[in-house]
Amino acid sequence: MKILAIESSCDETAAAVIEDGRIIRSSVIDSQVEEHKLYGGVVPEIASRRHAENICAVVQKALEDAQETFQSIDAIAVTYAPGLIGALLVGLNYAKGVALASGKPLIPVHHIRGHIAANYLTHPDLKPPFLCLVVSGGHSHIIKVNDYTKFEILGRTRDDAAGEAFDKAARVLGFTYPGGIFIDKAAQQGVRGQYKLPKPRVNGAELDFSFSGLKTAVINISHHAQQKGEELNVNNLAADFQGTVADILTDHLMRAAEQSHSDKIVVAGGVSANSGLRSALEKACAQRGYQLYMPKLSLCGDNAAMIGSQAYYEYLAGARADLSLNGVASMPVDQAFADLQI
Predict the structure, then answer these.
(1) What is the DSSP string of 176-228?
(2) Residue 333 φ then ψ, to 5°
(3) Rounded CA separation 113/211 (Å)
(4) What DSSP string describes 127-178?
């Protein structure tokens, strides 16, 4: 089964053709990072406008690369939740138009489910059940994936997501948006131990995350040094910050694995590209004899290939949408499309 997938939930306009949920026939991404870098973060109105300008060319390129046409594909998949509502609506309305014109079924896909499915493209042998850590700019979740379309949230962030904390800490350290990659590079040149940073916990919910206090600690250290005229060792602070985030994510994930009796561990989302987190997870899983699956770096960030992969399994589970499908800015990953009241 060949699925044309469209992703436009934030600042990447993406399209891909995926076969049987596991084979990438094509994957095209038009990123807006350079433009949003001017503002220190994603500007929703600009993102929506750029999606509208780029989506036709991106989809056409994906079809050409796969040597397919609208008539030769079997279904259209699109991200409908969660994300920036204006950005979502561009991809959603384009997909509905294609589905109507071609007579192909329209498959709605949850963005976070897509991130998890990126691992199916990297690891052909991976099948549920497994435990997944999803870490990105807007999400930090520990999810028990019981089946391809059945999810159970075990832990989630109570404030900032891990990726959001990276970006905010990076800004105060003098790095441009997106900050995660710059902190990663700086951390590799620094050493841990110079700066004492907190590891916040959520009372009564030991698997939930809280990164706001950690982010604030980095900001306070930076401002304190500036006010006293002291030199700030950016590389060492980056190493301490990144290491602390990796420690928190890894510790909570290992607790969840023990409690849920899971020995198959998966990581997904943009922050899964972080070298410090990858190293910490590899070490922790090796110590416990767990299997660890991580997406290849090109599939960590937002892309349409992951949407096409998850769409295949949503299709098998019976998910179909009509032209009343709407975008949803916020929606839990464990909520099924059939339960959504539009």
Answers:
(1) PSS-HHHHHHHHHHS-TTSS-------TT-TT-B--HHHHHHHHHHHHHHHHH
(2) -65, -25
(3) 23
(4) -SSEEEEEE-SS-EEEEEEEETTEEEEEEEBSSS-HHHHHHHHHHHTTPPSS
Enumerate residues 6+ apart whose C-beta is below 8 A from 27.
14, 16, 62, 303, 304, 305
Domains and CATH numbers, the chain: 2-116+301-339 (3.30.420.40), 124-299 (3.30.420.40)
**Tokens 């990581």 map to which residue?**
267
The three-state secondary structure class of 72 is: coil
- Buried-state track 324-341, b at ≥16 Cβ within 10 A, e below 16: ebebbeebebbeebeebe
User: Which tens digits make up the pLDDT trace of 80-109?
Assistant: 999 999 999 999 999 999 999 999 999 999
Burial class from Cβ neighbours inside 10 Å (0-12, 13-18, 19+) for residue 143 reads: buried
List CB contacts of 193: < 8 A, sequence separation 6 or more.
236, 240
Region 247-270: mean pLDDT is 97
CA dist., res. 301 & res. 86, Å (int): 20
Angle between helices 162-172 and 180-189 (to 10 degrees): 70
The DSSP letter of residue 334 is T
* Cβ pair 136, 163 in contact under 8 A: yes
Beta-sheet pairing, 140-147 with 75-81? unpaired
Write out pLDDT tens, residues 283-327. Answer: 999 999 999 999 999 999 999 999 999 999 999 999 999 999 999
Chain position carrying tokens 């899983």: 285
Distance CA 60, CA 223 (A): 49
pLDDT above 70 covers a percentage of the chain that reads 99
- Confidence at 342, pLDDT banded by 50, 70, 90: very low
Which uninterrupted H or E stretch holds 24? strand 23-31
pLDDT in tens, 102-152: 999 999 999 999 999 999 999 999 999 999 999 988 889 999 999 999 999
Provide the 10 A C-beta neighbour count for residue 291. 14
